[in-house]
TrEMBL record:
One GO BP: shoot system development
Molecular function, one GO term: AMP kinase activity
NCBIfam families in the cross-refs: adk
Protein name, as recorded: adenylate kinase
Organism: Arabidopsis lyrata subsp. lyrata (Lyre-leaved rock-cress)
Keyword Zinc included in the entry's annotation: no
Length: 284
């Protein structure tokens, strides 16, 4: 499929030691139109001839990875999940691995310094391969990370995915990954009844095909105790980012109406990409 988002400018954050450098921060600030407000949140017109520099916020289990990955395929920009970078580092048995596994398995956050370093390296490697733009998933997660990011580049849009807290633990506990193809699935049946004027929500499980069934693995940090710790840390440390980006007019709140079949078209609509997907499928 042809790359649809043209390289309008360099998107890279160059890591050097523990600092970020950007060759294009000023240029990108100057060239970025601000998203226009709609219903109290930012709603984005996606210009087809410019870069995409988006951030996905949201609690553990909300579906950041699922929707960021789908949009990355649609828009031809890399989906960069800092959780994946951490897990790759863990799997590599490198010098950081032991330290990281203790932190991650308690549901705690890795230090800003380590995470910025991992992200810098990933962006540098992408830059070397000619990547441009990004959809960040799981970064920033602290105010310090948001400030570092803001110092070096311009984020166009921050999508804040939301689900009722009651379903997040079940969704995390239902997560499975195929150890061979790397695809993610979810075996949870979510059926939350509406009450006090709030709509109910139901989500069918996203089951793996038969050939993945015997190869499913569960993340070591997706136990009930650790998920609850991660949710608590999200509320304390990461939630303030919502206000930070809201005050900059960059936040698009998105209440997921259900599972992927209901939510994906609505998300595309909110991003004004609905007709875009049809055009892409027509030329594919
Ligand atoms: N930006 C970040 N800052 C600090 N720690 C991070 C960051 N991104 C990922 N991590 C670490 O990796 C773990 C897994 O992250 P992720 O896959 O994004 O999980 P979640 O399901 O909680 O969104 C986190 O619990 C944390 O320990």
């Amino acid at each position: 499929m042809a790359r649809i988002v043209r390289v309008a400018r360099s998107s890279s954050l160059f890591g050097f030691g523990n600092r970020f450098y950007s060759t294009s921060a000023e240029a990108s600030h100057a060239s970025s139109p601000s998203p226009f407000l709609h219903g109290g949140g930012a709603r984005r017109d996606v210009a087809k001839d410019r870069n995409v520099q988006w951030v996905f916020l949201g609690c553990p289990g909300v579906g950041k990875g699922t929707y960021a990955s789908r949009l990355s395929t649609l828009l031809g920009v890399p989906h960069i999940a800092t959780g994946d970078l951490v897990r790759e580092e863990l799997a590599s048995s490198g010098p950081l691995s032991q330290k990281l596994s203790e932190i991650v398995n308690q549901g705690k956050l890795v230090s800003d310094e380590i995470i910025v370093d991992l992200l810098s390296k990933r962006l540098e490697a992408g830059e070397a391969k000619g990547e441009s733009g990004f959809i960040l998933d799981g970064f920033p997660r602290t105010m310090r990370q948001a400030e570092i990011l803001g110092d070096v580049t311009d984020i166009d849009l921050v999508v804040n995915l939301k689900l009722p807290e009651e379903v997040l633990v079940d969704k995390c506990l239902g997560r499975r990954t195929c150890s061979q193809c790397g695809k993610g699935f979810n075996i949870a049946h979510i059926n939350l009844k509406g009450e006090n004027g709030k709509p109910g929500i139901s989500m069918d499980p996203l089951l793996p095909p038969p050939h993945c069934m015997s190869k499913l693995i569960t993340r070591a940090d997706d136990t009930e105790e650790v998920v609850k710790a991660r949710l608590r840390i999200y509320n304390e440390t990461s939630q303030p980012l919502e206000e930070y980006y809201r005050s900059k007019g960059k936040l698009m709140e998105f209440d997921l109406p259900g599972g992927i079949p209901e939510s994906w078209p609505r998300l595309l609509e909110a991003l004004r990409l609905d007709d875009y997907e049809e055009k892409q499928s027509a030329v594919a």
